[in-house]
Amino acid sequence: MAFEAESDFSKQLITRHKCSACFKQYNKKEHLVEHMKVSYHSVHQPRCGVCLKHCKSFESLREHVIGPLPKESCSRVFSEQGCNLCLKVFDSPISLGEHKRSCRLPAPSPIGTMKLPYSDPIVVSHNGRGPGAIAIDCEMVGGGDDGTLDLCALVCLIDEDENVIFHTYVRPQIPVTNYRYEITGLTEEHLRDAMPLKLVQEKILQILYNGESIVRARMQGGKARLLVGHALEHDLDCLRMTYPDNLLRDTAKYPPLMKTNLVCHSLKYLTQKYLGYNIQTSFHDPYVDSVSAMRLYKRMRAQDHPNDASEISTDAYKSQNVTSKFDSLRAKELEQMSPDELYEISRPNYKCWCLDSSQAIQP
């Protein structure tokens, strides 16, 4: 009897169905199929450089290799050959040491609240074949009776090389009741001769659309620039502006940079964990914050992922197309496929930023 029970138990272990990406196991093949439909596994997911397990985000990958309860075998290798910033694993400690010198970036020098001589935007041409990217950050003061209404008082735009394109104080449309000096470093004097909000809007849109029509920018992008930032929706709301969703690159909403429960991290946290320096230790500086957002974007964009031609050619990545290959097959057909075959037809539910780099080199 004991032998038969042991045999049945062994049989159950053999017949369990293991996901090729995250290694979860299921007793029934139909459960594995359902898992693949909602997990959106793909080559674009963060992956352990030791065991090759796919993770939902870099945060979950970090927990996998250096968290409170890491996988022991992966943790041992990572402690000797892994980079704590980009989480890549290298061939040897020597290769890791060479990599770390370029991976840990120096903190940019803040501009501060001095008066800058920019009255017109300085447009810097992009040398690449793609549209290029512009990073933005705003500092807010308070309006309303209790000072809780966010009003844009300072805005900074930089290019991919961290050159300042536009930096100006903004004249709020209603009276300021709280300058939030302990955070912004701003006073009434800074905004005395500030640029009107409407003119600021015009100049920013002039830079972003780059001579492209609004209609084409919303459909394909064209020459319009990608807009990079952290919590971009908040900045655009305070500027009373809109910009096409397909051209936004928000480090607060990019799934690989979010928490395991898909809640966003602060820019301060992301900068410290992925770039290796601290920001916002005193006054918040929009130049420093925009540079940090741009560096995060470029680091994510530089990831080397295998790409399908269909992914590269689609500018607006639609989540409803993600499950089309699963939806086009019947349940019995899916259950007859191997775990590797199910993984092959799985697609991410977000557009990986590495595709921006791929599109930039297209003729």
UniProtKB/TrEMBL annotation:
Segments forming domain C2H2-type: 17-46
GO MF terms held by the record: 3'-5' exonuclease activity; nucleic acid binding; zinc ion binding
Pfam families on file: RNase_T (PF00929)
Methyltransferase among keywords: no
Leader sequence residues: none
Subcellular location: Nucleus
GO cellular component: nucleus
UniProt keywords, alphabetically: Exonuclease, Hydrolase, Metal-binding, Nuclease, Nucleus, Zinc, Zinc-finger
UniProt-listed InterPro entries: REX4_DEDDh_dom (IPR037431), REXO1/3/4-like (IPR047021), Ribonucl_H (IPR013520), RNaseH-like_sf (IPR012337), RNaseH_sf (IPR036397), Znf_C2H2_type (IPR013087)
Cross-referenced PROSITE patterns: ZINC_FINGER_C2H2_1, ZINC_FINGER_C2H2_2
GO terms for biological process, alphabetical: rRNA processing
Keyword Hydrolase among record annotations: yes
SUPFAM superfamilies (UniProt xref): Ribonuclease H-like (SSF53098)
Family per record: Belongs to the REXO4 family.
Protein's recorded name: RNA exonuclease 4
